Amino acid sequence: MAKKMKLEYIWLDGSKPTQTLRSKTKIVAAAKFKGKLKDCPMWSFDGSSTEQAEGKFSDCMLKPVFVCPDPARKDAHLVMCEVMNPDGTPHPTNARATINDHDKDFWFGFEQEYFLYDPETNLPLGFPEGGFPKPQGPYYCGVGASRAYGREIVEEHLDICLGAGLNVEGINAEVAAGQWEFQIFAKDAQDVGDQIWVARYLLERTAEAYGVDVNWHCKPVKGDWNGSGMHANFSNTALRKGGKKIFETICKKFGTKSAIKKSIEAYGADNDQRLTGLHETQAIDKFSYGVSDRGASIRIPMGVANAGWKGYLEDRRPNSAADPYKVAAVIIDIVNS
Ligand code: ADP
Ligand code: MN
Ligand code: MN
Ligand code: MN
Q1: Which of 42, 104, 265, 324 has its CA 20 to 30 A from that of 330?
Q2: How many CB atoms lie within 10 A of CB 14?
């Protein structure tokens, strides 16, 4: 029997206000698949089941844009796709196609925070039913059974991501109990978005095997518990070459009324619950920037100022459930405005 390969086609659905992941498996002859994008054919799906089409005209197209091995599945690859209309134009739910950086000037590093949740109690791992764990303090970068909850999932996910060739730069336990982070960097706005979405898919699938949910909401636990962000660290040639003036000019572009509106619209649902001015955030109705300031909207990292104002900026406002394609598209538009 001729050898077969499993290709998992992954795409974003039309759920509002937050798109979610969908995927299905395509079996191809191994002889025809060398692991390259050009070996992945176009495919289609029933858009009437994903809030992307009407039943009478239901087919949406899947255009492969990123492929990598799937180390956790036998003879398998993962294929991130853009959703296209039948006429070949981008579907309205396809934010990847709105990224306007043809000369590939921008680099991005996203810090993806999330909570691991027990679906039975609907609480983060580490939260006892009907009560609370110890207040925040010991959990950030903590170790030990009463500080770090769900590490086996986090470790397995990290190994799968690295095996897939994703450019994960680090992981850490976060400030709330059951909250974690991974960081991914790429020298291409579309590529970093592809990698974040594939890493999110792999996290969902890894946790699923443990009967654990991933909660991407930006403020799942009310009260004195940190929300989840997806800080967007970004640079272009101008920021990398540097100069204090360049940093100030670009920060100021983010502070105009129209830029703030555009940013907040792209930075994830329910961000008013997270951007309160507490828990290392600036309030949603305020804008500020500052060196080493984790209470600012945009932080200029200390190391960047120390290195003679060369490097990158951190927009702290995007939240954990934001679409990295939308975040990157807006940041590029504002910087280039
Ligand atoms: P912190 O938690 O202190 O905010 P992290 O170490 O979690 O910082 O994340 C910093 C991110 O900044 C990393 O993902 C890294 O890839 C990214 N980064 C570093 N240099 C640049 C650069 N020149 N352009 C874009 N992103 C960068
Ligand atoms: Mn971080
Ligand atoms: Mn963090
Ligand atoms: Mn950060």
Answers
A1: 42
A2: 17
